[in-house]
Amino acid sequence: MPRLANIGCLATCANPAGQDDIGLIRDAALVWRDGTVRWAGPATALPAEFEAEPALDAGGRLVIPGLVDAHTHLAFGGWRADEFADRLRGRAYLEIAAAGGGIASTVRATRALEEEALLARARQFLSDMVSLGITTVEAKSGYGLDMETELRLLRVYRRLDEMGAARIVATCLAAHVVPPEWAADRAGYVRLITERILPAVAEEGLAEFCDVFVEDSAFSAGEARRICERGSELGLRPKLHVDQLSEGGGAELAASLGAVSADHLEYVSEAGIEALAAGGVVGVTLPLATLYLNQAPPPARALIEGGVAVAVATDFNPGTAPSYHLPFAMTLACMRQRMTPAEVLKGATRYAARALDLEGEVGSLEPGAAADFAVIDAPDVEHWLYHLRPNACVAVASRGEICRGVLRRA
Length: 410
Known about the structure:
eight-stranded parallel beta sheet, globular, 16 strands, eight-stranded mixed beta sheet, alpha/beta, 15 helices
């Protein structure tokens, strides 16, 4: 039964309540067996039964639960650096999309790639993410927008999960935008999703969630309701992209549908915050997207003070958040969303796990949870997120196995 000794600061994130309560323990130890945490606490209180177990030395560093990225678009073809330059010259996101760029551009590039090519790209991204301390990743489809490619993307995610470096939680986002070939028949595309794509996804067990981008340029609230209700009938719990580019009652819609999360929320209303809190819906904020789109960030302080659990994720995608660097997104959440480092860590661990319906399984270091953890070269959480570095993570464990870095014997 391995144990981790000489932990300078351990953040267990064991308390389900309180955005800023990360369960800090100084001079701590951690014990696990068969990939599951058995004990975490002060080193001086280590039970006698664990004292003789082989120990690894954390070197007096910070240890956190494995990070959980609760919103990514992991598999796609191509990039969109040209749009990055266009936006800097003043072209709006919706203007670029109307001219055939944006999501439609990535759809064309993704449809052109076979499964093995998509797998190779996504596998490299995921390897880099694990090295940053990320051990659970939500991954959306949505760059296929046809039956064949949507299923291809979700099969890539299943294969990545089976490879075991990190947990992959798949989401079907066939309702990302209406593809050009269906522009004259929106109702027909919605029927394709509800009558063919979602049933096929459920039959193969390819996803846990169903997602819809609710926006004037994507899907209406009524269309989203039909899609999510059909997904729920098939066992695919809803997650929603809402209130990103305009305030359209998206948060209220998410709450009414029993969504596990409402993501983006840059334009969430006071009524929307109240609805999210009452419904227990996690608000997933995406600081990289607001940075790249030069938007005002979501009102994280109002969400927290209103009783909403706030998660922090990357939104990794080739257009509006072309980075999977979750620690950088966490620092941005401190700077632009005015969240404290403790609040941000809770948002990228336990509350991110809640946004994937995995709370208590991942995102915390408590008895019964997975032994997923990262050793960070910093004395505490504040210093880690304040001192921006390419990568402060020196070792990562997934399911109790050290998969990145080396820790010497204690």
